[in-house]
Amino acid sequence: MNYKTIKRCAHVFRVLLLSFTFVALGVVGFWIFSPTQVDSFGRRVVKKYEKYHREKFNRCESLLALNGEAALGCFEECLNEVNEIKNGDRLAPCKRRAYELMAAALDEAGNYSEELSWIEKWIAFDGRDVNALVRRALVKRKIPGLKEEGTEELRTLYQMVPGTKEVSINYACSLLEEKKYFDAFYVVDDFLNRPENSVADGWQMFVDTGKSFNAAQCSNLTPDVRQEGRLNFKLRLQPGVTKIRIDPPPYMMLEISCPELVSAAASAPQLEFFDLPLGFNQVVRCGDFLQTSGENDPYFFWALPESSISTREAIWSFSVRVKKVLPADIDILFTPSVSETLENTLLKNGKAELLARFRQMRDSKAEFAQARVAASIAQGYLELFWRNAPDSFSQARKKRVLVSKTQETNSYVLDYQFSLDTAFSQLRIDLPDIPNISYRLDLLEIQNSKGEIFAFPLEAFTPASLHNVKKDGRTFRVTGPDPFFCFDPPEVAAEITSLKIRGVGK
């Protein structure tokens, strides 16, 4: 290499070094003088990364109702992709939800050994997650040779966190299985009467001003506690609120009745709560009262009529009567034979106060059951949901009609036509949630935009999935709460415009 070549290379090196220096100075200057743009760019990158994984998790969840095996494979792939995600990361809630759904699906399939291995990974991700620790104890109780270990884990958890619903109720159930009725009742009674489980604590309100419900428009609610367990909330609404969402305390089964919604403005129209368009999550409507399911995110929401939407700050009073409801898992305590045994034990041990609470609990349970049956027997809703894969069914995509009993025939007549003005890949029909009833369908048909009618052969018709419904020919028998069946529409040459259903329930 001659001198000129060496000199030329040196010049090139100097130019490159000077370019890198200017770039570095530019980056430093950008960070110093434009921090807002730097933050905005960073947020966009993180948001894109988060959106990609969230959408993938959502696709896996939507698969659960269609193909459980494919959903498990999808979740496994997603969890392997985010294996390095730690608790506290933006995607941590998605990862936790995936572990929870995988465990539930494997449990339903009876694959307890594999379920246990995934729960161990869940606990490694978040060793303080009580749900994961309870699930591990419960699945161990189902595996031969590990039952005692699972029972001991439940006992230890109860000693550590006795005020937690999952721990207390599952520990009580394990005691009931061993016929330790007094100990089981003591655990339930202790859980219900703990100060931290007050029905007045943990309420929240979200509002929607056109950008959907979000954490930025959330406020904690502190009610005035009145007689007979009635709570009164003052709802302070900013201008332009179109929807209100109320979140009751999580992990508690509550009966919410006698709701009253009153505006502080004298000129505002009075609203009947149950006449408003309502939506629910982990909450079930039973006639004229609501019941929360005891899960992690219960809420109900409603849209304000246009005449009630204010351009200025508005104040509403929302009051409800609230009382705790006992989960069905411990119903055995109130069967005649067990109830008598427990009462005798409490009397023999001089536990007069506990005995009084047990009797009150038993009577309240019976009253609630009667009220629910009476409310559901009177009327129920027939609902039609639709979705486009990979989206899941949603309250935003549904239509419903109220079905009441006819006095002449002492039956529920279904004869309704739903109009459809959007594309979809699957339909779901939610039958009226009425106990011990069977619906015989005489007609289920769709019509397209050309006026062509396609009727489903109901005898041979096989739904894509069933929930708390058993099908026998044309008959659909309700076997539990929230009964529904899903089905795929036939391929037609034009857009589907309506669905018609006709039948009778007895």
Net shape? globular
Number of strands: 22
Q: Average pLDDT value?
A: 81
Q: Helical stretch count?
A: 11
Rg? 29 Å
Our estimate of the beta-strand percent is 25-35%
Give the class from helix and strand content and strand pairing: alpha+beta
Largest sheet: 11 strands, antiparallel
> Spans with pLDDT under 50 lasting ≥5 residues?
none
Q: Helix content range of the residues, please?
A: 25-40%
Secondary-structure map:
Elements: H1 3-33, H2 35-63, H3 68-81, H4 92-108, H5 112-125, H6 130-140, H7 147-160, H8 165-177, H9 181-192, E1 203-208, E2 218-221, E3 224-225, E4 230-237, E5 243-247, E6 254-263, E7 278-281, E8 283-286, E9 289-292, E10 299-303, E11 314-324, H10 336-348, H11 352-378, E12 379-387, E13 398-406, E14 411-419, E15 426-430, E16 438-448, E17 453-455, E18 465-467, E19 469-472, E20 475-478, E21 484-487, E22 496-505
Antiparallel strand pairs: 1-2, 1-5, 3-4, 4-11, 5-10, 6-9, 6-11, 7-10, 8-9, 12-13, 12-15, 13-14, 14-22, 15-21, 16-17, 16-20, 16-22, 18-21, 19-20
